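Cross-posted from the bioinformatics board.
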Amino acid sequence: MEVSALSGNLCSFFAAASCKVVRRCSHQHGTKVLQVYLPIAELSVNLFFLVGIGGAVGFLSGLFGVGGGFLLTPLLIFSGVPAPVAVASVTGQVVAASTSGALAHYRRGAIDLHLAMYLVLSGVLGAFGGVAMFALLRDAGQLDLVISAGFLVLLGSVGTLMLIESTRAILKQRKGIVVRERLPNQHSWIHGLPLRVRFKKSRLYISVLPVLLIGLFIGFVGSLLGIGGGFIMVPALVYLLRVPGNVVIGTSLAQVVAMMAATTVLHAVQSQSVDILLAFCLMVGGTAGAQFGASAGKYLRGEQLRGLLALLVLAVAIRFGLSLVLAPADAFSMAVVGATQ
Amino acid sequence: MRALVALLSLLFALTAPAQAERLVSQLSNESVEITSSFDGERMTFFGTIAPDAGSEDKFVEGPFHVVVVVIGPTQNRVAREKTNFFGVWLNSGQVEFTNFPSYFHVLSSGRLSEIADITTLTTNSILPESHTLVVDGADWWNGAIFGRELVRLMTEQGLFGVQENGVNFLSENVYSARLTLPSNAPPGPYLALTYVFKNGEIITRKSEGFAVRKIGFERFLALSAVQQPLLYGLVCVVLALFTGWAGGVLFRR
């Protein structure tokens, strides 16, 4: 339960009311309103709460086209689910949430499978490293520190960049200036690297080294922090590799599905902490919410969406930052080491 | 754990002095079954203090005090403390407690401090703090501080507790005690130790075991996660892919 302190802060920020209801239900034995017992997490949680947060996060993920793991994992930990179970089960949920989007893009032919394959292969390698690092940090008792700092740096920098970019775009549009997209054939030092491969769908002829490096990094960070990494992948593909806009989202989604599927199996084999019942409840809520989110997204323009997502990402980053700096409500915490039954 | 039970009962048999009283006790259920709607379970402990089979007394003379101690399966647990290090709060100290009970509740018929002295209570592991005395890799001072905090954290989770009015005497020598196992009670073998006190001394005791276990679908899931982890993970992925696909089909207009 290493992450409980910081997630507590995070959740009180986002869903204080709903979380409190659950806590009360799980402690009072008179209110047996559809409690479901989770066999791996070994506790019972309200079914409506699980489907509800799955749906709410799914709505956001459909709206913004991100996996939503960075919101869901802390929410689960706060409602009492042990951190390893929450991280492992959310990876399963991210697979489901990204599948329908990936399929839709595949039908439109908006996925560069060749590029995705390279990203997935290196991503799985990175995931191995991330899972090993996770165990190492957990034993040292510094997992919550690294997760807080990691989220702060990652979400903070990505959020700030996105906010600046989208504000600029919105202001320019207000003034009536036609926004010129960056051209995909603009070259940088990245394109001068060796081992070049032709990616037909993306109309790219670039070195595989940066592709593999991006995949490795996202696999590592994703499995360590329990996130899909779509919000890092999309800017990396756009700004570093100059992948054209029509295949960016599809390729990113395909990569998230494949890499998170591999991570789920990895967690199931290594830590045996995937709770299939928990994951399924979240999946049902998540896929339903994602559909509504996607249709709601049509009423907003691209830069507005990016601006809102930037604000959300920044808000999470600030909460993580505060949890590092502010005095914790309880200086002491506990954890079970080694599974002994 | 089974070995521990055997060892404990052997110890009791060896240490039990010649007594005039014996304890006849019973649990309301020998196993607590965790189903999909498991939300805790209420248990009742009851018994009678009777004259020992070999003794010549026809009656037992009180007043008696009864303490029921319920101990869950043991785990290794660490308590950690956060301190401020150049403006950043991080875990700076930790103490590991090996074979620490995952569940520990004490029910008694009166104030523990009035039933017996602290030495008797501690040596028989009746106080929650007595489980924190064995510490790995730390001095006793840190062990005491972290142990107290660990007991507090466990109490906040409802896993530790002391109810000093938990045992009711129905007559002078018949008692009953009620305990509600919370929904987060860890599965595994449990021990219920019943002590009968008279004038601050333990005059008789008895230990009974019961199990908290998953049954049916929950048991199947928990077992397959451990026995067939690869298959379990693959099924989870297939389920995720199917749910994602079905969601896309169902909600497409």
